[in-house]
Amino acid sequence: QLCSTEETKQVLRLSLTEFSLPKFYLLFGISKVKSAAVIAFRSSYRDRSFSPGSYERETFALTSLETVTEALLEIMEACMRDIPTCKWLDQWTELAQKFAFQYNPSLQPRALVVFGCISKRVSHGQIKQIIRILSKGLESCLKGPDNYNSQVLIEATVIALTKLQPLLNK
Questions:
Q1: Which of 5, 38, 69, 112 could be a cystine partner for 100, CB 3.0 to 4.6 Å?
Q2: What are the domain boundaries of the chain?
Q3: Interval 58-85 mean pLDDT
Q4: Cα distance between residue 146 and residue 170, in whole Å
């Protein structure tokens, strides 16, 4: 059980209230519903007619991911203050880095944004890898400007570099 201080409990209460507001549904890509539970607890077992393609999916903007990640990071950091040996952030950063530097058109842009948002330190080698990813995205865009995945990858690398730049040594 999490031994929470009153301050941590307050952060958790405020975050839960904030995430329950309809204006935050858009951040999670579910703005077209009256209740988040409609989507969250929909199951193919209960509703045999449901399939992932049977409803219109909204796109999940990288800026929304950035906001959600920062909110989750705030929650995690509040909880970690109550657990001295907690390694949650280190594990999350490891996973984000793993997927950020591994080619995957669906996951890589999202992992880059998350990595940029949650990293507490960055090496020049990691920055170099992100710049290489940016370079490949730009090359791909030059070959065909209609390449949506490349545009998303470029946006993700810019967000990551913007977040990581203050962590670099002068």
A1: 112
A2: 1-38+54-84, 89-169
A3: 85
A4: 38
